């Protein structure tokens, strides 16, 4: 009886070994959320806010791999203007730790016309298309460098315009968990023409301190 039982057990086929062809799941994390990385990877999203001068803002980013969608609300402290906008970034270049993403956004500007700082400002409601380009380089797990170009064009529905191209650079630091901290400085020029006025040219600048939170 015991011999028969041993024969039955030994004659059974061993359990098959399952070999998966699926790549291993990466546990690495691309840090950033405000301006870094230049475009978010697929399935990743973030919320952010930044304080500074002349503007403060809050926004949401959603990555889809080949492109990124972004929604942002900006308040200009110097002009007393509000700008809600939606935009698209294209992930056109990625090599190692470098990412480059041009973008386009469209918003509405509601400008109160405050002149306590900018004497050439004027009240208007209008469209605000914005061209942009962003580059990010991840120096380490905790630090990313960013380079930014913005070209917003405010077009008043009642004539007049404002164009303010800015070139900026900064760094975004991983604070732990899902949080990151941004520090950036920007410089350029501004061209403003109020209705029936003459175009005024002057220097422009911006400084920003931001906080980002990666949801995924």
In angstroms, what separates the terminal alpha carbons?
Answer: 61 Å
Overall outline: elongated
Which structural class best describes the helix and strand composition? mainly beta
Tell me the name of the CATH class.
Mainly Beta
CATH architecture: Beta Barrel
The average pLDDT score comes to 89
Number of strands: 12
Helical element count? Answer: 1
Question: What does this 3D model show about the protein?
Answer:
- The protein has 216 residues and is mostly beta strands.
- The chain has a single domain, classed as Lipocalin (Beta Barrel).
- 5% of the residues lie in helices and 59% in strands.
- It contains one helix and twelve strands; from the N terminus they run αββββββββββββ.
- The protein has one helix at 2-11, and strands spanning 45-53, 55-63, 67-76, 81-90, 93-95, 98-111, 124-138, 143-156, 161-163, 166-176, 179-193, 200-214.
- Strands 1, 2, 3, 4, 5, 6, 7, 8, 9, 10, 11 and 12 form a twelve-stranded antiparallel beta sheet that branches.
- Mean pLDDT is 89; it is low at 4-10 and 22-28.
């Amino acid at each position: 009886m015991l011999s028969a039982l041993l024969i039955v057990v030994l004659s059974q086929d061993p359990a098959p070994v399952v070999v998966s062809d699926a790549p291993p799941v990466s546990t690495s994390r691309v840090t950033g959320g405000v301006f870094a990385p230049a475009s978010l990877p697929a399935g990743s999203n973030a919320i952010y806010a930044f304080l500074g001068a002349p503007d403060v803002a809050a926004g949401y980013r959603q990555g889809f791999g080949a492109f990124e969608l972004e929604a942002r609300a900006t308040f200009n402290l110097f002009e007393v203007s509000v700008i809600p906008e939606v935009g698209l970034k294209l992930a056109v270049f990625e090599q190692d730790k470098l990412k480059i993403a041009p973008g386009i956004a469209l918003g509405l500007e509601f400008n109160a016309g405050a002149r306590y700082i900018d004497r050439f400002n004027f009240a208007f409601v209008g469209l605000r298309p914005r061209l942009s380009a962003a580059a990010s380089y991840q120096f380490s797990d905790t630090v990313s460098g960013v380079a930014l170009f913005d070209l917003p064009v405010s077009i008043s529905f009642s004539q007049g315009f404002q164009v303010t191209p800015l070139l900026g650079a900064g760094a975004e630091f991983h604070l732990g968990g899902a949080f990151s901290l941004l520090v950036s400085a920007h410089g350029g020029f501004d061209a403003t023409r109020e209705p029936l006025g003459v175009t005024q040219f002057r220097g422009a600048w911006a400084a920003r301190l931001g906080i980002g939170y990666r949801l995924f």
